[in-house]
């Protein structure tokens, strides 16, 4: 039996709904593969902030370090500034545990239609740089409340940071090529001289890719890439992008295949020295929270990415097959044109897991 200690932070809004739904499914698939998850529920997030003045305890990161993985819903509420909720929990976890790869697969799913007419099947993996870039702590606001008010933020790109994410993306493209995909790597950039950091990104990425002669590579300007993703999403395979570009592209690509409610992500520490974190691409969705209608697929799929990262690809494959069968069978929430509740989708996924031979 393989046993894992998983830190669970359901967090805010629909995180409280989709996380339990995903855990139900993970427990079933785990049992069938001789895996035991010890779920360690942490009540951190905005309610915790309201009573303690912080998003997690002072030693929160040290406590997370004792786990094999972190399973997160979302954080963020309308009445607390995002700067508190995000810099108080999400971003410190990604940084402290050097989760420098944010892996965001995007695929057309059975029974889920794209809002775009005539789209061919899409199968993309976005590899988002997750520790630096545009999301820097350097900057601030000056002359607040005056007519001279200014906001400044420096982007920080390091050779080491770009190299490691580009290398991960290139290896992934090579592996996908071996598995029958195009094996094409597109680097999202903005190197036309306006943004100083991007020619550096390009240079470092080019240097890394020189070591991967089998991977077809190109580089596209982020604005044109966004348009092209809408027009020809099936042409893309692996996309490597900076923190902010990757963030935007992943919601865009998620919407193209049906809904960001289906989109998963893995915040990976590829060296395995620290726990990785698995969470959907979407946020706390305050507009639909508390109604039981949130799409749990992004969270469930994130659970499959966790199984994969923990070394259980067969269990991951079973879980993906089960939610695909559930979707195909009509267990779909409103955001993807159905009328099922969160709980009904989870029950359908479980039912598929229970009826397939292990
Ligand atoms: P959001 O992703 O929460 O919601 C955007 C839209 O998509 C909303 O209309 C929402 O109803 C819909 N949506 C999202 N997930 C869905 C799901 N599973 N099922 C059905 N519909 C879904 O983005 P937002 O509204 O811009 O942000 C809300 C809050 O979440 C903010 O505080 C933001 O900072 C935070 N946020 C947190 C994370 C995270 O914790 N990782 C990620 C993104 C946003
Ligand atoms: C995401 C989210 C976060 C990000 C926000 C909430 C800071 O949008 O995980 O995609 O931009 O990384
Ligand atoms: Mn985002």
Automatic annotation (TrEMBL):
Cofactor: Mn(2+); Mg(2+)
InterPro entries in the record: ICDH/IPMDH, IsoPropMal-DH-like_dom, TTC_DH
UniProtKB keywords: Manganese, Metal-binding, NAD, Oxidoreductase
Pfam families, sorted: Iso_dh
Entry-linked SMART domains: Iso_dh
Domain of life according to the entry: Bacteria
Annotated ranges, domain Isopropylmalate dehydrogenase-like: 5-349
Keyword Isomerase set for record: no
Family per record: Belongs to the isocitrate and isopropylmalate dehydrogenases family.
Protein name: Tartrate dehydrogenase
Source organism: Plantactinospora endophytica
């Amino acid at each position: 039996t393989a046993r894992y200690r998983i830190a669970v932070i359901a967090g805010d809004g629909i995180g409280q709904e989709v996380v339990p739904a995903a855990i139900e499914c993970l427990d079933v698939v785990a049992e069938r593969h001789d895996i035991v998850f010890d779920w360690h529920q942490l009540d951190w997030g905005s309610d915790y902030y309201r009573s303690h003045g912080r998003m997690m305890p002072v030693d929160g990161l040290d406590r997370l370090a004792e786990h094999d993985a972190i399973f997160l819903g979302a954080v963020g509420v309308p009445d607390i500034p995002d700067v508190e909720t995000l810099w108080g929990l999400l971003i410190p976890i990604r940084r402290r545990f050097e989760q420098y790869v944010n892996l965001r697969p995007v695929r057309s799913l059975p029974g889920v239609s794209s809002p775009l007419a005539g789209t061919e099947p899409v199968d993309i993996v976005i590899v988002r740089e997750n520790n630096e870039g545009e999301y820097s702590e350097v900057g601030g606001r000056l002359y607040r409340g005056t007519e001279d008010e200014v906001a400044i933020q420096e982007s920080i790109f390091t050779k080491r940071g770009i190299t490691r994410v580009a290398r991960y993306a290139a290896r992934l493209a090579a592996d996908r090529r071996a598995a029958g995909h195009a094996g094409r790597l597109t680097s999202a950039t903005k190197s036309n001289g306006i943004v100083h950091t991007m020619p550096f990104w390009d240079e470092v990425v080019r240097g890394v890719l020189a070591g991967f002669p089998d991977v077809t590579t190109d580089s596209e300007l982020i604005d044109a890439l966004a348009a092209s993703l809408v027009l020809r999403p099936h042409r893309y395979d692996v996309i490597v992008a900076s923190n902010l570009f990757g963030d935007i592209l992943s919601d865009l690509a998620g919407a193209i295949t049906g809904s960001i409610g289906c989109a998963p992500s893995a915040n990976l520490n590829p060296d395995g020295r620290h726990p990785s974190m698995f969470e959907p691409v979407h946020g706390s969705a305050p507009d639909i929270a508390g109604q039981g209608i949130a799409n749990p697929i992004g969270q469930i799929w994130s659970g499959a990415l966790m199984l994969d990262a923990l070394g259980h690809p067969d269990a991951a494959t079973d879980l993906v097959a089960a939610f695909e069968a559930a979707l195909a069978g009509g267990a779909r929430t409103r955001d993807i044109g159905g009328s099922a509740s969160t709980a009904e989708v989870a029950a359908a996924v479980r039912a598929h897991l229970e009826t397939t031979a292990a």
